[in-house]
Design goal:
The protein has 224 residues and is of the alpha+beta class. 35% of the residues lie in helices and 27% in strands. Bound molecules: copper (II) ion.
Length: 224
């Protein structure tokens, strides 16, 4: 990844690179636009400052020139916007629309101020006796597409994994799907990204990405 995007947390998701390229594009175009705009303002401040012997200009208005000062930047901003849409659409499709068949489904329920993580167990069905719940711990195998069913017991929360580049709002009364495939084993933070009450800042869990063998061992331990 580009050097000056290193302030982002390490990407450990299959689609993270696509997300980062869009972040970079927005970042660059905004930075260039910022420099252009404030550069022009600064330049004009210096060029047209008050100077001894130079009388103030009496401007009656020039319709065409004034219109162009508005219309040219409008066209430029519009072009940048359309370019971002054009580049962003395939990434949106990859992350939101084209979900690969999942190796496992996990239900994550947000509540003030915890993540309740429910596994369907060996029968792969939720709501049966072999379901198991873990608070604030999400265990997954590396290199496998994982489907998340996101729910809330009370208010709006937001499931956020900076390392997976996955952030999805959770709305009470709805079950919202999300997916990811982790590329590197490790322990990663899972904060809530929607101000949800007085305990919001402490609402976080951990994502444990295991090598496949370790994950299978963990499953065996839990459902022995
Ligand atoms: Cu929350």
């Amino acid at each position: 990844m580009l050097n000056w995007l290193r302030w982002l947390p390490e990407n450990v998701s299959t689609y993270g690179g696509d997300i980062d390229s869009i972040i970079a594009l927005i970042w660059y175009s905004t930075a260039v636009w910022f420099v252009l705009t404030f550069g022009t303002i600064g330049l004009f401040l210096i060029l047209y400052r008050r100077r001894a012997g130079r009388p103030a200009a009496y401007v009656k208005g020039e319709r065409l020139a004034e219109a162009l000062w508005v219309l040219v930047p409008v066209v430029m901003v519009l072009a940048i916007d359309l370019w971002l849409d054009f580049r962003g659409a395939p990434v949106w499709a990859k992350v939101m629309l084209e979900r690969p068949p999942a190796a496992l489904s996990i239900q994550v329920t947000g509540k003030q101020f915890n993540w309740e993580v429910v596994y369907p167990g060996p029968d792969s069905k939720f709501g049966t006796a072999d379901d198991r719940q873990f608070d604030n711990e999400l265990h997954v195998p590396v290199g496998k597409p994982v489907r998340l069913l996101l729910k809330s017991k009370d208010v709006i929360h937001s499931f956020f994994s900076p390392h997976l580049r996955l952030k999805q709002d959770i709305v009470p009364g709805r079950a919202i799907e999300a997916w990811f495939e982790a590329t590197k084993p490790g322990k990663y933070e899972l904060p809530c990204a929607e101000l949800c009450g007085f305990g919001h800042s402490g609402m976080k869990g951990w994502l444990y990405v295991h090598p496949e063998e370790d994950y299978n061992r963990w499953v065996k331990e839990q459902w022995s």
